[in-house]
Amino acid sequence: MFYEARGHGAAAPPTRVGYDELADDLDRVATEAGATQALGVSLGAHTVLRLLTRVPDRFAKAVLFLPAALDTPPVRREGLVEALAAGDSARVLEWVRGELPPGRDTERYAAARAAYLLSSPGLLALLEGLDEPPVPDLALLGAVTTDVLVLAQEGDPVHPAQVGRELAAALPRASLVVFEHPGVLWNDRARLRSLVLGQLGAGG
User: Fold this and answer.
1) Rounded to 5 degrees, what are φ and ψ at 39?
2) pTM of model > 0.85
């Protein structure tokens, strides 16, 4: 089951956005679905982490792909907030292109991604509100009982591989895979899929 995080999509802008609110949303959706496993990517990984700091046994297994920060606020690429505030579709498209690997046919994806960002009225509130660390205190991770697979990639300035290493070291039951190059979703998708399925399988 996939769900759209607060601040994304066509829903009205939220009045408050923080990791606690995102974790509340995740907990509610997971409870309704009877989910015992979780997959979080970037912001989603932070959301899973925040929930686990509050409920250390909330999930039996999890995959955390491209965590960007732990006990410090995430580093953001500049330009998106300003482009969204101005409704400048060309600047948003250029920002999205800057996230994609060179030498691949990514233009259709870039156009669709830019259109989605521009059609998400709550995204500005999300970007401006998430100025806090996803993990309030690294010591909280020591109580987490979830079996976690951490996936990171070298050469990613927004999702540093070192964050993945530190996260895997802080969790009692974690394994770590660091891809040698960025652009894993485009350049090593088969291996990524195999790792995720190997961790989560067909469970809930």
Assistant:
1) -125, 120
2) yes
